[in-house]
Structures are given as C-alpha cells and as structure tokens.
Amino acid sequence: MRKLVIVFCFIFAASLHAKVMLHSTFDSAAAINKPAAASCKNALSVWTAGEGKIAFEDGMFGKAARLHGKDKNIEILKINSMAVDFTNSGRIDFWLKFNEDPHKIKDGSYFYILCDISESRNFKMGVSGLGDDQAQLTLWLGASERGSDKQLYNIASDVKEPRVFLKIKPGEWHRYTIIWIKNAEKDDELKTYIDGETVEGSSRGARLTDVTGKLPSGIAEEKWSDIHIGGNKEGSDTGDFSIDELWIFNDPNDSPEKNGLAVPENMKIK
After folding, report:
1. Is 266 within a domain?
2. What average pLDDT does this structure show over 53-67?
3. What is the per-residue pLDDT for 251?
4. Is residue 264 domain-resident?
5. What stretches of 50-121 adopt beta strand conformation (E)?
6. Quick one: 203 exposed, middle or buried, by C-beta within 10 A (0-12, 13-18, 19+)?
7. Angle at Cα 228 formed by Cα 222 and Cα 233, nearest 5°?
8. In this structure, are residues 92 and 125 in contact, taking their beta carbons and an 8 Å threshold?
9. CB 114 within 8 A of CB 122
10. Strands 134-141, 122-131: parallel, antiparallel or unpaired by DSSP?
11. pLDDT of residue 58
C-alpha cells in the first residue's frame, strides 16, 4: 500500500462557541492539500492500493471528492489524530453519498469511519453487509482486541427496524453527525445522527430517541486517534462513495437537527 501524504501550513480557526479543528470543502485536490481550517500539520492524507482512485464531482456545496475503492482496491481518506480532540467533547459532521445501493452489499464492511483510540479500543460508524442482500448501519464503541470482530459496546445499531438507514438511497446526499460528550459527574456520551435524526438500536425502531453510551475507560487520555474514511486493510472492498464538507469541532454543539452543515450559524471562521 502506498501512502500519499498531503502537507500544508498551520491554519487556525475560531468561532464564538467552538473551535473548528478541521474543515475541508473537498472541492479539489488543492482543497484537500490545504483545508479551509486545520489545527495541525498533515491533517489529511490519502491511502491507495491497487487501482483505488479519487475524483471530483458536483457535490452539495461546490465540488465533492469521490472515492472509489471497489473490487479490493483501497481508497482511504485519513484524518490526522491531532485534528480530533478526544480529551474533551467534540463533533464530526459531513455529507455523504453512496454511489451504489448501500442496502445490497456482500458480507464485510462497505464503508465506515474508524477512530483508533488505542491498541485495544476504537469506535466505528459503518455500513456492514449481512449477506442475503441485507445491510445495517451501526455505531460500534470499543473492541475486545485489535483485529477482533467482538465488540464491547454496540450502542447505536439501526438494524432491527432501520427507519433511518432505510431512507438512504444511492445517489442521494445525506448529512452524518457523530458527537461525543465528556461529562464530569456522569457517564460520557456518544451519539450518531443522519440528517439530524437519531440512529438508535431499539428492536421497535419506530420511536427514535437519543442514544447514549459509556465511553471505554482511557478514551480521555488518548490523543492519537486517527480517523479512516473507507476501508482499513488491503483486500477490503470499500465501495464507491462521495464526501463533501467535512467539519470537526472541539465542542459538540449538540443540536445537529437545528444546524446547517456548510456553515453552522454559531461556527464563524475568522
């Protein structure tokens, strides 16, 4: 696997209520080279293998990056750990479009965001094939050991009655949000949303309520948590998808259903 590392200068962005850790428009290769805002060097890089490739197409706001890692060719967008602050509360927002039917995929991961917390812990939001033309959207939190499929926490699975994920159609843009909240006097929280609607794992599924879960011990101490968008190993099938307008904040601003994504009202870049 060869790794293309994209280097750019320090750029800092602030707002009235939260710091923008990273903002990428994905309008072009230059936009990936030099994001609109970033809190560290080498904030973005691209991993490729085989004939994995990146292209640009019309997106929600200007252009979007299209990553095509189908047929065991890998195309992974990697976000540097220093652009994500897991020591405090935070939030990731982005627009995503599946260019193939996400509900009809084979066994194995089709697309996911993987945040490596440590050698033994991670959290992952992904679409996984179950066989027989079935798929699920799940937010996993924690793993028993690296490389193991056994999960310690499975706190937000839209699989029993996938009311939210069933709305996702190929060729459509949808907004995804991951929020983590550090609480001093109670359990930490982790939530995921699609278009501002909570993904929850109730077997009933019709009633969408907030999903919270306790973060694994030690998550607050780890600072090198890289995020991989796509697959994570050679031989995986990451599919064909497009991404636009990625934002990472160091504050959860916990109202994704009320805020636009391109430029949230309380996030003003100076």
Report:
1. no
2. 86
3. 78
4. no
5. 53-58, 63-68, 74-79, 90-98, 108-116
6. exposed
7. 110
8. no
9. yes
10. antiparallel
11. 92
* Residue 265 domain-assigned (yes or no): no
Q: What are 79's strand-pairing partners?
A: 44, 227
* R_g (Cα) of the chain, nearest Å: 17
Q: Smallest Cα–Cα separation from 243: which of 257, 254, 228? A: 228
Pairing of strands 197-198, 20-24: unpaired
- The number of beta carbons lying within 10 Å of the beta carbon of residue 194 is 19
Which ranges in 139-215 belong to alpha helices (H)? none
Paired strand residues for 114: 124, 228
Q: How many independent structural domains does the chain possess?
A: 1
Within a 10 A sphere around the Cβ of 208, how many other Cβ atoms? 15
**192 class by beta-carbon count within 10 Å (0-12 exposed, 13-18 middle, 19+ buried):** buried
Q: Which domain holds residue 52?
A: 2-249
* Residue 261 included in any domain: no
**Residue in the structure block whose two tokens are 């990697």:** 78
83: which 2 tokens? 């652009």
d(CA 68, CA 207): 35
Give tens-digit pLDDT for 184-226: 666 566 677 778 777 654 322 222 222 333 444 444 444 444 5
The predicted structure's pLDDT at residue 161: 45
Read off the pTM.
Answer: 0.69
| 147 contact partners, CB below 8 Å, separation of at least 6 | none
CATH number of the domain within which 216 lies: 2.60.120.200
- In this prediction, residue 15 carries a pLDDT of 35
pLDDT at position 143 is 40
